Amino acid sequence: MNSASVDQNHKTTKSSSAIHTSGDKRFKMLDATIKRYQYQQDALIEILHKAQELFGYLENDVLIYVAHSLKLPPSRVYGVATFYHLFSLAPSGVHTCVVCTGTACYVKGAQAILATLEKSAHIHAGETTPDGQLSLLTARCLGACGIAPAVVFDGTVLGYQTPESVDEHIKGWLQDGSS
Questions:
Q1: What distance in Å separates the CA atoms of residue 79 and residue 24, rounded to the nearest whole number?
Q2: What is the overall mean pLDDT for the chain?
Q3: pLDDT given for residue 86 in this prediction
């Protein structure tokens, strides 16, 4: 083999192993997960979980990368990512507020709590404030019906909430980013 063919062979090998051009090391870690699942299309949900763990959310670039790696249509990967509630297509805020909208919480005023939060934060459920401080989410049921209406603030469940109590809780987050 002459040096030109060795050089060409090296370039071909290198370009096929480095599919993503960003140089982001998280893609290399995602590749390891995909390889561990042996490129099985049936492992899509597990691979998307790992991708979200690595990137924080599933941006379009990541979805396309996973689709390409598993030889799946991007529409299928996007469909799975949007079907399951655990996946997020947008970055989360520094703080999260989850309002339970299950039956007990709904009957005891969850809608008024949600409306107050949306008005105070100037966002709708499922959105994050433009400054990235607060993500407002809803849950079908937290399993905390005995303390309805329940709201989760940064992973801590608080019961017997009122529109006023939740509004007071998030004010600090919205004003200066403090907890």
A1: 25
A2: 88
A3: 79
